[in-house]
């Protein structure tokens, strides 16, 4: 029996790719990768429902380094889909070699995404992964050049599929036929495809190319403000955001909140001097209960050090100029 290791997102395409192989006797296992931009919740739910052996790997750091300078560039927003898929195949390929799998597979469909799933892009992904002869796309395999796995009889090409294009009709028909009833809607799931988040990330990379995974996680929290080319402020919108900020604070970061009025929690990251901290305090004051006061005292904390400064709440037009949208 041949063995295939698949990339599982939990979406319908990846589900059907795994089932296509399992239905012809291939022993399948799956891997789901986690970064700040996408998680494994859907994959975990799918694996449990369909009895797919699954391992989950956090690749945040290596993925971030790729994201800063993708060889094939970005899509419409900050999504480097070709580089991302190649990276996942490269990492899965190492598991394949270490654990005795015969090949890799995914739910990619020829022509489903015009820029990242055309024939040239699929070939680029396989080549850049380092395993060009061991990548199989079961849903479109009969439309693609025959692979060594098919030639060697590890999989039966005649029982693979010939799906192409953006329509989901064929996939939905197969799902009905094979009894797959619980699967997420197509699209979404990756923050890098969202224009609002991409704007924040682009600003971060422009001003702080050394940004790490925690800096990226902070972009997902509340409101974001550019205090200076070197300093940034995240401001919680609600208690959940405030708790997230507390979890993400590092010894070099500065927590900031109003000392004598209720309001949000903020976190200043990067190199901030007195001017940047005063601006951060003014923003925090504006979003708190003291927004109509002449001055507001704000409390700052960096590691074990605590101190206060008095600030004037910032007018809305000033906030608008500093906010990262």
* CATH-defined architecture of the largest domain: 3-Layer(aba) Sandwich
The CATH class designation of the largest domain is: Alpha Beta
Low-confidence stretches: none
Task: Tell me the β content.
Answer: 15-25%
Pfam families: NFACT-R_2, ThiI
GO molecular function: ATP binding; CCA tRNA nucleotidyltransferase activity
Organism: Trichloromonas acetexigens
Keywords: ATP-binding, Nucleotide-binding
Compact summary:
With 325 residues, the protein is of the alpha/beta class.
How would you characterize the overall build of this protein?
The protein has 325 residues and is of the alpha/beta class. The protein folds into two domains: 3-186, HUPs (Rossmann fold, 3-Layer(aba) Sandwich), CATH 3.40.50; 194-322, no CATH class. Helices cover 38% and strands 18% of the residues. It is built from twelve helices and eleven strands. It has helices at residues 12-22, 41-50, 60-68, 81-99, 119-129, 148-151, 169-178, 195-207, 213-219, 239-248, 274-286, 316-322, and strands spanning 3-7, 27-34, 54-58, 103-105, 135-136, 223-228, 231-235, 254-258, 266-270, 296-302, 305-311. The strands form two sheets. It has a six-stranded antiparallel β-sheet with strand order 6-7-9-8-10-11. Helix 2 (41-50) links the parallel strand 2 and strand 3 (54-58). Helix 4 (81-99) crosses helix 5 (119-129). It is elongated. 42% of the residues are buried.
């Amino acid at each position: 029996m041949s063995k295939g290791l698949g990339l599982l997102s939990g979406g319908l395409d990846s589900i059907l790719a795994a089932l296509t192989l399992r239905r012809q006797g291939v022993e399948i296992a799956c891997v789901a990768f986690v970064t700040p931009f996408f998680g494994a919740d859907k994959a975990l739910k799918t694996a449990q429902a369909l009895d797919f052996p699954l391992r989950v790997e956090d690749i945040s750091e290596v993925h971030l380094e790729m994201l800063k300078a993708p060889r094939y560039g970005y899509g419409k927003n900050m999504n480097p889909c070709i580089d991302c898929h190649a990276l996942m195949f490269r990492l899965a390929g190492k598991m394949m070699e270490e654990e005795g799998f015969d090949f890799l597979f995914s739910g990619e469909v020829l022509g489903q995404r015009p820029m990242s799933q055309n024939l040239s892009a699929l070939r680029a992904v396989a080549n850049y992964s380092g395993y060009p002869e061991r990548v199989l796309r079961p849903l479109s395999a009969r439309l693609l050049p025959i692979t060594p796995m098919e030639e060697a009889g590890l999989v039966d090409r005649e029982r693979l599929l010939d799906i192409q294009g953006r329509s989901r009709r064929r996939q939905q028909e197969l799902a009905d036929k094979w009894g797959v009833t619980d699967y997420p809607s197509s699209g979404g799931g990756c923050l890098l495809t969202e224009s609002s988040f991409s704007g924040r990330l682009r600003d971060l990379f422009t001003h702080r190319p050394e940004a790490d995974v925690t800096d990226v996680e902070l972009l997902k929290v509340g409101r974001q403000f550019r205090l200076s080319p070197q300093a940034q402020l995240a401001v919680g919108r609600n208690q959940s955001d405030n708790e997230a900020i507390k979890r993400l604070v590092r010894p070099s970061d500065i927590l900031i909140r109003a000392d004598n009025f209720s309001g949000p929690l903020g976190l200043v990251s990067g190199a901030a001097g007195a001017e940047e901290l005063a601006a951060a305090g003014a923003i925090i004051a504006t979003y708190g209960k003291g927004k109509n006061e002449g001055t507001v005292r704000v409390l700052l904390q960096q590691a074990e050090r605590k101190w206060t400064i008095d600030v004037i709440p910032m007018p809305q037009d000033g906030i608008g100029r500093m906010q990262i949208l």
